[in-house]
Amino acid sequence: MKRFATLLGAAALAATAFAQSASAETKLRITLQLPLKSHLGENLVLFKEEVERESKGDLVVEIYDSAQLYKDNEVPQAVGTGQIEMGVASLTRYVGDIPAVDVFYMPFLFNTEDLVRKAVAPDSPVRKPLDEAILGTGGRVLWWQAYGGNILLSKGAPIKTPDDMKGKKARVYSKALGTWVETLGGAPTIISGSEQYIAYQRGTVDIGMTGVSGVKSRKLWDVMDTITVTNNADIEFIVVVNEPFWQGLTDGQRAIITTAARNAEVAVRDAMAGIEAEAFKVAKENGMTVYEPTAEEVDLWRKASQPVIDKWLGDAGALGKQVHDAALSLRM
After folding, report:
1. What is the reported pTM?
2. Which has fewest Cβ within 10 Å: 23, 26, 120, 182?
């Protein structure tokens, strides 16, 4: 696993610059690719309010939303090398260094809320080894942010079966989803979340992928008119903090941040079902058609998608097998 070794060395040299005395104001800048009004943005505001309140102004949190500072794919390196203290990134943005993170994008492996909750619990045999591996990139995971199940976006008609993917260009946001599209006969294109709207508007792709909350926050009904509720992957974002910065904080500061992070994680996870229901409602009110595949259609998707899991297991190494086996154990 690559670990940004050279860049992390430079970050370590700057660690003393991060150290703050207990009496000095300590600033935590957080980069977010989504709008502040999105549920991930609101979750960061919740974290900010608790941290600033409990620290009595000793810790100041600044949120830079809508990719003002960094795009989603730039966050792991920006945080890992200390260019910014904190950041929010899609879990899959770590796949280049840790292929095992794509376990959450294996088709239909986490297709119920119960399975997702078990897998993302802090001490889960799925999540814990991934958090430890991410620490090796220079970013410490503070909390996971739920983003819901993956949906497909299209124009004119729903994507009912794997055959509907053939010959179509599709927006993807992970390597695994790209492999999935290719396996089903489509052509994947990785497009950042903040660039989706323009891509759909220009016809760069025929099919979109996102969580339904993203449809609401980005008003994607302006450029797409149909949602297919496949829930073939579980979308997770993580909030990471630069490790040298973290080690430069006082024990008291770390305790405040840790508690606020855990509270924020619980809040966003518990709210996710309602967030998705509201987003579907708003999408319909804005003219979108929502299609839910039949059991027979889901079975077709599963069978056609199995080669994706087989290929990933061959590429993800020992850690991939470990978390995949752990995921299967959750079903028992």
Report:
1. 0.81
2. 23
Q: Give me the domains of the chain, ranges plus CATH numbers.
A: 25-319 (3.40.190.170)
Q: Give the C-alpha distances (Å, rounded to integers) separating 171 from 33, 46, 182.
A: 17, 31, 12
Contacts of 141 (CB under 8 A, 6+ apart): 131, 134, 135, 238, 239, 240
Report whether 172 contacts 178 (CB < 8 A). yes
Query: Going by C-beta distance under 8 Å and a sequence separation of 6 or more, which residues neighbour residue 56?
Result: none
Within 10 angstroms of residue 190's Cβ, the number of other Cβ atoms is: 13
The two tokens of residue 300 are 């077709």
Per the CB < 8 A criterion, the answer to whether 65 and 41 are in contact is yes
Mean pLDDT for the stretch of residues 53-64 = 97
CB 191 within 8 A of CB 204: yes
Q: What pLDDT, on the 0 to 100 scale, is given for residue 24?
A: 64
CB 16 within 8 A of CB 82: no
> pLDDT tens digit string along 192-246?
888 999 999 999 999 999 999 999 989 999 999 999 999 999 999 999 999 999 9
Strands 139-154 and 234-242: antiparallel
